Automatic annotation (TrEMBL):
Keywords: ATP-binding, DNA damage, DNA repair, DNA-binding, Helicase, Hydrolase, Isomerase, Nucleotide-binding. InterPro entries: ATP-dep_Helicase, DEAD/DEAH_box_helicase_dom, Helicase_ATP-bd, Helicase_C-like, Lhr-like_DEAD/DEAH_assoc, Lhr_WH_dom, P-loop_NTPase, WH3_Lhr. This is DEAD/DEAH box helicase. SUPFAM superfamilies: P-loop containing nucleoside triphosphate hydrolases. It comes from Blastopirellula marina. Residues 29-223 form the Helicase ATP-binding domain. GO terms for molecular function: ATP binding; ATP hydrolysis activity; DNA binding; helicase activity. It comes from the Bacteria. PROSITE patterns: HELICASE_ATP_BIND_1, HELICASE_CTER. One of its GO terms (biological process) is DNA repair. The keyword Nucleotide-binding applies. Residues 263-431 form the Helicase C-terminal domain.
């Protein structure tokens, strides 16, 4: 429509304010101007609201100019949220004010157009003012419009309404609020002089034609279901900036506290980098929790929460503060989901999945809420399944898929309420009222009989015996309906379609101000003094009074987070299909990649506690990139999703979809079995399926199962008697018996009672308010139970008195409740359609037996309480006996359905009976009934003694092996295996003889031998017994039905019938599963300390046949040992020489001279400068370190205190010379300081001991060592010259500055490199390292990043442990190796002086003169203070070699040089 059709003032205002109209406005204005009903669908921020209001404002302006603008309401705007109504009211004031200004500027009087908002929060004074002088534009909610039509005075103000605008119509159409509104609109039609024009607005509508029918009503829809409505379909898609982001650590089945910490860190970063952020969560409890944690970081003034359980004042304050820019972020539930103007939001964050495509679009649309803005959204999945769902959600948005809105069909509870309300307003004709209400689209097919049933209920009461709910008089003679006394009050105080939840108000004392509401259960469990969180504020409970929780401000004390009970939102049908399709497509790409060797693979750690042989996964890069692009995912999120699907595919050979539903069964730790049905169909379908399964099991096995159902599957916790072929599950339910079983299951499910209470309240059978006061929740519950007992006595009666199915009475409320349960809480029609597809072969059921849960089963096992289908609490769940693994390595998962052959062999050995005397053999023969003679040869002598006494015999048949049997069991044998004779003949005692049919005897045989065999096939038994395989198979099936044995393919080892179906005693099979899993776990059990010591000896190069050598080898060893401070005299002589072949001092000097390495004291001595001259001097025992110069910056302790103040005399002069002139040779220093050579040497030694200087040669250190090694120097001059070689400089000198985080990170890497596995006890020798308390947070972060693995790797080592994949793999491999290591000798100064730390021996002081010898992780000998002690017996020849090694401080080559032969001297000799 051209702007020229508007009044010039309105046109000028629009052009000045907006410029040109949007597509939605151009397309919508013509039909609205013509008075035609119009439905506008356009993306958020496209000007829909103004498209509806513009024509209305123009009409009102023209009325004003014509003098026909009366004191009456012309336009009614209806929105589903109170906050949205308030927002629209505020936003209308601005255009009206600007139009007035425009009119004045054009020489006209400003129009006096009034607007007002009427919601449940509107004060009574304002409501009364509206009735005296109605607004021209009324902004309201469906419930308030209903009240205005019911109240006498306000009803009269609506007679001139010509336009009704319904905003966010999708949010109303999908539930009973929409049904309630359609009846209200038909009531409005009967009041107004002319039929009002109806305008519907929404960004997410599907199918749009049906929403148009819902808007206009059945009277405006022709016989082809084409509505008389102009549909402006601008679509719902627009340019979006979306991404799925995940925590740094890999997602699991449950989000850990550490991962929540990472989420909070990322949230804080996002909030701080944006102007204003809106964080959406799915529950009120999470809103409070997240807001509280963010407040702790960002402060009280910039973060708050927003949800429906907060008072209107707190919510309004939060909205205004965000709009004014005072808040950085607000954490909200769906309360801010729709088009509320809360200012410019530049980022929306959704924590967890939104469960609905439309909801997610609505939420993201809150950001960039302008014509030119780009909405920006980030999704934070918290678990692996949520990750797949979020990716599918993003993909759905990209593809333009939208959820289908399902409109409830003729809810009778709403009909009853509206009948009472309309009759209360004025006397009604019974037939006319029926015709009027049938015009509402949901009631178009309402039968007259159902209408009569509802009339009877509101006339006579819920039942004949209980008159509750009787609000009208029914004149059957004249067909008139009149109100009873109090009908109008009941309809106005207790009306509405929103079900009442059992809540308590939170009221402050003494201000008497309502803060919000909490759940009844939380309120009742609270006691005085408790502190809880509400509205991001801590409140202390003062007491409970009626339905109020009285509180005081707790002044920020640590609070608990309240909870609210409610049904979790199920995933929509469309999104569920997208989840299944995405899984399947990822799996197909993974299979294609596996078949194509040329595809690039990414090698990533498995990050789990599984087998170390599979510690690296090969993930297809192309698939990761495809997921990243297709689903707007970060690279890390895409990688995790691909690995998750790959692991499941490896475990089962397929990925469950909506067409391939997998039944997975496995044993738990208690020996029971868990059955998981992998069905990504959504909660509503799976809930119906799970309840029906529960009822079917109850009837078949007389056992009440524990069960749960969520969006992706069902869990059934089977009992010991549930032994059946897994394929039998496929036939338990079908399209014929499914619904009847489900309806019977509903009787014991809380859903029925809850929905009955809701329906009874909505139908006004139970009033919400009485005597001007709200009825307490418990009283509503009591009255509801009494009404149910009267209307449906069988439901609350004793089930033992019902031999047949309970029949639902033909009562309108009972039938409505049943319908609501089947269609709202569940989706019975789609479930039945699934069963029909199974019967037609369109959907395939697949059985899988696994030894432990597959990856997709992990979240099913850890189901939330709202998914439980039985009354057992979380603490009583049988699923707690299930242990799940963390790893997702596909290599491990491929073996998930395999049982260990060792475990099977072990169980077979254990199950086979033992007999040590004749009585025990008799027991064996009695229990097994028959024993082939070849299998009992070890007991032949015992058997012959039994035969002599007549207690046993051999049953012989021609052509078959003799069978031993106890005399008492002979009748069974003869019945099962006719044609044989007892040899010798025996007399069976009276009373033992049994008359059995052959098939009964076969069952006895199978039942008796199964507990002794382990896995067996019917063919094997048939061959031994000489029977037909079919006969044994039938007997096995009979025993299976008793719950004794289970079928499967367990083992073919030693079987001549490979591939045959096998059977196994249930108890033995549980043991095989347990031993299989235990065997795998044994491979990841912590090792003993001696194994770790053996590992360290290898890891630090002390035991290799060919050790490192040369400059490169030296760099590797220094890289391993840097940061460790050992005595100066032991570095070359003990540490390096022990780890390298033919160590030469020149290697170290060259590295020092080139600047690659540096030596010095990392942690200087502590002292008091006032105490006098320093006694420090570089002696053999002074600790020092040799490090790679490039790493010195982070190796220096972060709190290193210089010892400069301790330097005195000559040392001070030398230090000042070095500080002023830089690095100097010995001769230069002597010239500058004018010191004698010996005095200069002493000064340099003092400074080196104080950690103040270093030298680019190691000669000074060697001089100290040599002086101690040889009392008389052979060449004093030569030694001094060597000692004075090289340049001296300040230590540590110029070093790179590192952050505190990098400092800790690099130290963690160094320590893990040194020890492979790091824990607290290893730090007792690490004098320069940060403390364990400083390292632990960084180690945890490195674990989350995948750099390290945390766990328990070494036994009896306290605290947390961390290690690399390679080290852990080598460590556990070493456990299996034979302990035949050669012995090694290490100095007391060596890092491997761990006596008393990793052994039970006494600690050996870390002195360079002490030595210890390790062998196979055991302390063999020590040298302490010159005294040698052998702690274990040693052969004499080795004792001599060990003695030499103890004196040398390292192991020496065997002595081949004659005594007295001169040798080259060095510190390494």
């Amino acid at each position: 429509m051209s702007l020229e059709l508007f009044h010039p003032v309105v046109q000028a205002w629009f052009e000045k304010r907006f410029g040109k109209p949007t597509d939605a406005q151009n397309a919508g204005w013509p039909s609205i101007a013509q008075g035609r009903c119009t439905l506008i669908a356009a993306p958020t921020g496209s000007g829909k609201t103004l498209a509806a209001f513009m024509v209305c404002l123009d009409r009102l302006f023209r009325r004003w100019l014509a003098g026909k603008l009366h004191d009456t309401t012309y336009v009614v705007y209806v929105s589903p949220l109170k906050a949205l109504s308030n927002d629209i009211h505020r936003n209308l004031d601005v255009p009206l004010m600007e139009i007035c200004e425009m009119a004045e500027s054009m020489g006209m009087l400003p129009p006096q157009i009034r607007t007002a908002v009427r919601t449940g929060d509107t004060p009574s004074s304002q409501r009364q003012a509206m009735t005296r002088r109605p607004p021209h534009i009324l902004v309201t909610t469906p419930e308030s419009l209903y009240l205005m039509l019911t109240a006498e005075r306000s009803r009269k103000t609506l007679t001139n309404v010509d336009t009704v605008i319904i905003d966010e119509i999708h949010a109303l159409a999908r539930d009973k609020r929409g049904s309630h509104l359609t009846l209200t609109l038909e009531r409005l039609e009967s009041v107004t002089a002319e039929s009002p024009t109806r305008i519907g607005l929404s960004a997410t509508q599907k199918p749009i034609e049906e929403i148009a029918c819902f808007l206009v009503g059945a009277e405006r829809v022709d016989e082809n279901d084409v509505p008389d409505c102009a549909i402006v379909d601008g679509g719902h898609r627009r340019q979006l900036d979306l991404e799925v982001v995940v925590p740094q650590s890999p997602l699991e089945a449950v989000c850990s506290n550490e991962q929540w910490g990472e989420v909070y860190d990322q949230l804080v970063e996002m909030i701080q980098s944006h102007h204003s952020t809106l964080v959406f969560v799915n529950t009120r409890r999470m809103a409070e929790r997240v807001a509280h944690r963010l407040t702790e970081v960002l402060g009280d003034d910039v973060i708050t929460s927003h949800h429906g359980s907060l008072s209107k004042e707190i919510r309004h304050s939060a909205e205004q503060r965000l709009k004014e820019g005072k808040l950085k972020a607000i954490v909200a539930t769906a309360s801010l989901e729709m088009g509320i103007d809360i200012g410019y939001i530049d980022l929306v964050v959704q924590i967890g999945s939104a469960r609905s495509i439309a909801n997610f679009l609505q939420r993201v649309g809150r950001s960039g809420h302008s014509l030119t803005g780009t909405p920006k959204g980030r999704l934070f999945p918290l678990t692996r399944d949520e990750l797949i769902e979020c990716l599918a959600l993003m993909r759905s948005v990209e593809k333009g898929i939208l959820d289908r809105i399902e409109i409830p069909v003729a809810p009778l509870d709403i009909l009853a309420q509206q009948i009472v309300a309309e009759v209360a307003a004025a006397e009604q004709d019974e037939a006319a009222l029926f015709d009027r209400f049938r015009k509402a689209w949901p009631y178009r097919d309402l039968s007259y009989q159902k209408y009569q049933d509802v009339l009877e209920m509101v006339n006579e009461g819920v039942t004949r015996s209980i008159k509750t709910g009787a609000h009208i008089h029914r004149d059957r003679i004249n067909g008139k309906l009149r109100p009873r006394r109090g009908a109008r009050i009941s309809a106005t105080t207790s009306g509405g379609a929103i079900p009442d939840m059992p809540i308590y108000r939170v009221v402050t004392e003494p201000e008497n101000q309502v803060v919000g509401t909490v759940d009844e259960h939380f309120a009742v469990d609270s006691k005085a003094g408790d502190v809880f969180l509400l509205g991001n504020t801590s409140w202390r409970v003062a007491g409970i009074k009626g339905s109020d929780v009285l509180v005081h401000d707790a002044q920020g004390q640590p609070p608990s987070v309240p909870f609210w009970f409610g049904e979790a939102p199920g995933r929509t049908i469309e999104l569920s299909k997208e989840v299944a399709d995405l899984r399947e497509e990822i799996a197909e790409r993974i299979v294609a990649a596996a078949e194509d060797p040329s595809r690039e693979k990414l090698s990533v750690p498995s990050l789990g506690d599984g087998l170390l042989e599979a510690s690296q996964d090969q993930v297809d890069v192309e698939t990761i990139l495809w997921v990243q692009k297709e689903c707007h995912a970060s690279a890390w999120a895409a990688l995790q999703a691909v690995r998750y699907v790959a692991a499941q595919h490896a475990a089962m050979g397929l990925v469950p979809t909506q067409d391939k539903i997998v039944f997975e069964r496995f044993f738990d730790e208690a020996g029971s079995m868990q059955l998981v049905v992998h069905a990504p169909l959504g909660t509503r379908i799976n809930r119906a399926w799970g309840l029906a399964f529960r009822k079917r099991f109850c009837r078949s096995f007389d056992f009440e199962l524990q069960a749960s159902a969520d969006d992706d599957g069902i869990v059934l916790s089977l009992g010991p008697q549930h032994s059946f072929p897994l394929e039998d599950m496929f036939k338990m339910l079908n399209s014929d018996n499914g619904q009847s079983l489900l309806e019977q299951a509903l009787l014991a499910f809380p859903m029925f009672q809850i929905r009955w209470r809701w329906n009874a309240t909505r139908s006004l059978a139970i009033l919400r308010y009485m005597g001007g006061k709200k009825v307490p929740p418990h009283m509503v519950r009591f009255r509801s139970d009494d009404l149910l007992a009267a209307a449906f006595p069988d439901q609350v009666g004793c089930l033992e008195n019902h031999a047949e199915d309970i029949k639902y009475p033909d009562h309108p409320l009972v039938q409505q409740t049943l319908h609501d349960c089947l269609t709202e809480g569940m989706d019975v029609e789609r479930w039945k359609d699934l069963l029909r597809k199974v019967e037609a072969g369109e959907v395939q059921f697949i059985a899988r037996q696994t030894r432990e849960p597959s990856p997709f089963a992990h979240e099913r096992i850890n189901a939330n309480p709202y998914s439980f289908l039985d009354p057992a609490g979380l603490e009583d769940r049988r699923t707690r006996a299930v242990t799940t693994r963390r790893t997702l390595a596909p290599g491990e998962m491929r073996e998930l359905g395999q049982l260990s052959s060792e475990a099977i062999a072990t169980v077979r050995r254990e199950a086979w009976p033992t007999a040590r005397d004749v009585d025990e053999l008799h027991d064996v023969l009695s229990s097994m009934i028959v024993l082939p003679a070849s299998q009992g040869q070890e007991w032949k002598s015992l058997f012959e003694r039994l035969v002599k006494t007549g207690r046993a015999t051999s049953y012989v048949r021609p052509g078959h092996e003799p069978l031993w049997t106890a005399t008492e069991k002979l009748p069974i044998v003869m019945a099962a295996l006719p044609g044989g004779t007892a040899s010798p003949a025996v007399s069976v005692p009276e009373g033992v003889t049994k008359d059995l049919e052959a098939h009964e005897a076969w069952v006895e045989l199978v039942r008796s031998v199964a507990p002794c065999l382990g896995p067996f096939s019917s063919e094997e038994l048939a061959q031994i017994w000489g029977l037909k395989s079919s006969s044994v198979m039938a007997a096995c099936e009979a025993v299976e039905a008793e719950g004794v044995i289970l079928r499967g393919q367990y083992s073919t080892q030693g079987s001549q019938h490979e591939g045959d179906l096998q059977w196994c005693d249930r108890r033995l099979l549980a043991r095989i599963h347990r031993l299989t899993v235990h065997g795998l776990r044994q491979q990841i059990q912590p090792v003993e300390r001696d194994v770790f010591l053996r590992f360290l000896v290898r890891h630090q190069n002390l035991q290799r046949d060919t050790k490192s050598s040369g400059a490169r080898g030296l760099s590797a060893m220094i890289g391993l040992l840097q940061g460790f401070e050992a005595s100066a005299g032991s570095w070359e002589r003990n540490l390096l020489a022990a780890r390298m072949d033919d160590y030469a001092p020149d290697w170290l000097d060259n590295q020092l001279t080139s600047g690659e390495m540096i030596w010095g004291r990392l942690r200087p001595p502590q002292g008091d400068a006032e105490e006098g001259p320093s006694m420090a001097s570089l002696r053999r025992s002074v600790p020092m370190a040799i490090v790679l110069r490039e790493n010195l910056g982070w190796l220096i302790p972060d709190v290193r205190q210089s010892a400069e103040a301790l330097a005195r005399g000559n040392a001070r002069d030398v230090l000042e010379a070095l500080q002023s002139r830089g690095a100097l040779f010995h001769q230069d220093l002597r010239v500058l300081t004018k010191l004698l050579p010996t005095h200069l040497d002493e000064a340099l030694r003092e400074l080196a001991a104080l950690g103040l200087v270093t030298c680019d040669s190691f000669s000074a250190v060697r001089k100290i060592v040599d002086d101690g090694h040889a009392k008389k120097s052979r060449s004093r001059h030569k030694t001094n010259a060597t000692a004075r070689a090289g340049r001296w400089s300040l230590f540590p000198g110029i070093v790179e500055e590192v952050t505190a985080e990098d400092y800790l990170h690099r130290w963690c890497q160094q320590l893990v490199q040194r020890y492979g596995v790091l824990f607290r006890d290893l730090l007792h020798r690490e004098t320069a390292a940060p403390s364990w308390a400083q390292l632990v947070p960084m180690l945890r972060r490195m674990e989350r990043r995948g750099e390290l693995r945390g766990g328990r790797f070494v036994k009896n080592a306290g605290g947390e442990q961390y290690g690399t994949e390679q080290a852990i793999y080598a460590l556990r491999k070493l456990r299996e190796a034979k302990p035949d290591d050669p012995w090694v000798a290490v100095s007391g100064n060596d890092p491997l002086n761990l006596a008393g730390v990793l052994s039970d021996d006494a600690k050996l002081p870390a002195i360079h003169t002490n030595t210890l010898i390790w062998q196979n992780g055991q302390l063999i000998a020590t040298k302490r203070g010159g005294e040698i002690t052998f702690h274990h017996p040693v052969p004499p020849d080795e004792q001599m070699e060990m003695t030499r090694a103890l004196h040398a401080g390292r192991r020496l080559p065997p002595q081949t040089i004659p005594i007295g032969f001169p040798r080259r001297r060095s510190t390494a000799s």
